[in-house]
């Protein structure tokens, strides 16, 4: 595997710009490279600017946000249909389960991207140190796995 030389120079986007880039599945630093390698797995690093993504800790926030959004839309939809129309129960269930599943699948990746973008903009979980590196150092450390990442396990809760 040959190392790629980053072609884009990352800028210092504000919170909304970084979240918007993440929402679109783009690198929060430069806006050109892809943020995701697979559906919900972030790429190791941006192929355009070399920013490492292994720092992110989106954890459970994206699913909670998606549940919040989908729950409100589907809940209102059920209320609206039940008070204005008379549909069979199986029709209602089919419609709202389908809408909920489709909305959840459609929103999960963009919401996770926005969370990673916000973490980048705020310099959370190692992104601050990564942004402070000069571009040459960033190129040298691109593709490194989790060797340099901070440990965020639960051991700090137990005093070990």
Given helix and strand content, the structural type is mainly alpha
Using only C-alpha atoms, the radius of gyration works out to: 20 Å
Helix content: 40-55%
Report the β-strand fraction as a percent range: under 5%
Number of domains: 1
- The SSE order reads HHHHH
Looking at the structure, what is the overall shape? Answer: elongated
Walk me through this protein's architecture.
With 160 residues, the chain is mainly alpha-helical. It has one domain. 50% of the residues lie in helices and 0% in strands. The longest helix has 34 residues, at 89-122. Mean pLDDT is 78; it is low at 134-160.
Q: In a few lines, what is going on in this structure?
A:
This protein is mostly helical and 160 residues long.
Task: Note the topology.
Elements: H1 15-23, H2 61-84, H3 89-122, H4 127-132, H5 135-141
Helix pairs in contact: 1-3, 2-3
